[in-house]
Design goal:
Layout (H helix, E strand, L loop, with lengths): L4 H24 L3 H12 L12 H21 L3 H4 L3 H26 L4 H10 L5 H10 L8 H28 L5 H32 L7 H19 L4 H13 L6 H26 L9 H23 L7 H9 L5 H13 L4 H30 L24 E6 L21 E7 L2 E3 L12 E6 L4 H8 L5
Antiparallel strand pairs: 1-4, 2-3, 2-4
Helix pairs in contact: 1-2, 1-12, 2-12, 3-10, 3-11, 3-12, 3-15, 5-6, 5-8, 5-13, 6-8, 7-16, 8-11, 8-15, 9-10, 9-11, 10-11, 10-12, 13-14, 13-16, 14-16, 15-16
């Protein structure tokens, strides 16, 4: 019987080393994801660690679980109010944009690597989607922001284009390995996966909110257990029914995020940590699976394919998909440049290996180049490119308020965050003039990136973000005073 202790020691040590490397990366201005890959390569067969890890099926299974949690966290961090006006361009990027990226990259790959056109398109599909965790970890680390609706659109695109990339990858593998597979059957498969995934995701999110709010558990630590289990249950049910489990978990996250939910902040922290752990784990796995000694043979054509993805396929997809949108040329160029690749292509690259597709090891090596170039070149230059295009917007606002309320689950007051709208009765008035319901308290006001503890004479201004402690039956009256027409 093999002892598990050495494996636990090695795995935890690699994760801790990756976290330490992320601290170094922020000081050097290099994306942490590059260091994660480097740690994995140092620990691999060709590195000092000499860890022989070649179980691609295990890597794929771990990757599926990791991607489910990464996508759920993306949905759980998404504001419906922000993305609702961007549904048309966002879904266009997630479908048409992914298709254009896959087709252009795949065509160039078939020529550069001397591959059959179906295999070339498979490679294009694997690297066709962007990665939300990679994008916003880089933006957060470099303290740079993007103005207007650029950031919400990138959030929406990154969360919704992974299911399309996964579908194209699986469909093309079936086209290559199963004789007689046609385009019509692939179209039917796409419709089936997306429709079932959407129904299961929306239903799972709705049910999860009611389970969390209605459980009345004695221990707060059990609420994250529910939400963590919901992720895997949602993915499993959707996939078992023939739908897209990745789309289902993303939609479930959006539904939960935009509902009145108990212990929201503690759940967000848990899922943010889980997504980071999954992201680190998949980059470490990529480093372990890649053999640097074998990369020299494919370096030049792989660099050509990776460069074509960044400089041709992605810009063409963005410019055509957003041609009639309200985004300016500069904003579209910025959206194109922020199309970072991350854990998703790594996970999808294991699918051809497990399926036994010819040239699958070559595809995996090329994916390594694409991801590495994306996070190393694009990731390090995002702030500079944003300033060059005039779309940067630096913000010093804290990412989360310095307090939270814990709901005992007995129907009492809960903490809510609202934005004072210009047409709200509260705009321009002091707290004592509001005549809020008895027991309702405004406990914190965020204004211009700073937090203020309000007093009775504190005047509220349009645009202020206020934290309100209110009972459920008083919530409508409070909303009418602070944010009429906004839910």
């Amino acid at each position: 019987m093999t002892a598990i202790e050495p494996t636990l020691i090695i795995a935890s040590a690699l994760v801790l080393l990756a976290v330490v490397a992320s601290k170094v990366s922020s000081r050097l201005g290099i994306p942490a994801l590059v260091f994660f890959i480097g740690v994995g390569m140092l620990a691999g067969t060709d590195g000092v660690g000499r860890i022989d890890f070649t179980d691609f099926e295990l890597a794929q299974n771990l990757g599926i679980v990791a991607l489910a949690y990464i996508l759920f966290d993306g949905g759980f961090s998404t504001s419906w109010r922000q993305i609702r006006p961007l549904l048309a361009p966002g879904l266009g990027l997630a479908t048409i944009g992914v298709g254009v990226t896959a087709a252009v990259t795949g065509g160039i790959a078939a020529v550069a690597l001397d591959l059959p056109w179906t295999t070339g398109l498979l490679l294009g599909a694997i690297v066709s989607s962007t990665d939300a965790a990679a994008v916003f970890s880089v933006l957060g680390a470099r303290s740079a922001g993007l103005r207007g609706e650029v950031t919400p659109l990138l959030e929406l695109e990154s969360g919704t284009n992974d299911p399309m990339a996964a579908f194209l990858t699986i469909g093309l593998i079936e086209l290559i390995t199963v004789p007689g597979t046609g385009g019509l059957s692939l179209f039917a498969l796409f419709a089936e996966q997306m429709s079932i995934g959407a129904v299961v995701g929306l239903a799972a999110g709705w049910l999860a909110v009611r389970v969390v709010n209605g459980s009345r558990l004695e221990y707060e630590g059990l609420y994250p257990v529910i939400s963590l289990a919901v992720v895997l249950l949602t993915y499993g049910v959707a996939a078992q029914l023939g739908g897209s489990g990745f789309l289902a978990v993303y939609l479930a996250g959006i539904v939960m995020s935009n509902s009145d939910l108990l212990h929201r902040r503690s759940l967000q922290r848990i899922h943010d940590a889980a997504a980071w752990l999954c992201q680190i784990g998949m980059f470490l796995v990529l480093g372990l699976l890649v053999l640097p000694s074998q990369l020299g043979e494919v370096a030049l054509p792989a660099l050509i394919v990776a460069a074509s993805l960044v400089l041709l396929a992605r810009p063409l997809a963005i410019m055509t998909t957003l041609l009639f949108s309200r985004f300016s040329i500069a904003e579209r160029a910025m959206i194109s440049w922020v199309g970072l690749r991350g854990a998703v292509p790594i996970i999808l690259a294991t699918f051809p290996l497990v399926a036994g597709v010819e040239s699958a090891p070559l595809l995996f090596d090329v994916v390594f180049f694409a991801v590495l170039i994306s996070v190393l070149i694009q990731g390090t230059t995002i702030p500079a490119v944003a300033r060059l295009l005039g779309v940067d917007e630096t913000s010093s606002a804290p990412t989360s308020p310095p307090l939270e309320a814990v709901d005992a689950g007995q129907g009492g007051a809960r903490l809510h965050t609202m934005i004072i709208q210009p047409d709200a009765p509260a705009a321009g008035r002091t707290l004592v003039e509001l005549h809020l319901p008895t027991g309702t308290l405004i406990v914190l006001v965020q204004r211009h990136g700073a937090y203020v503890v309000p007093e009775g004479r504190t005047e509220l201004l349009a645009g202020d973000s206020v934290m309100v402690l209110a009972a459920p039956e008083e919530l409508e009256q409070v909303r009418h005073a602070l944010a009429p027409g906004r839910r």
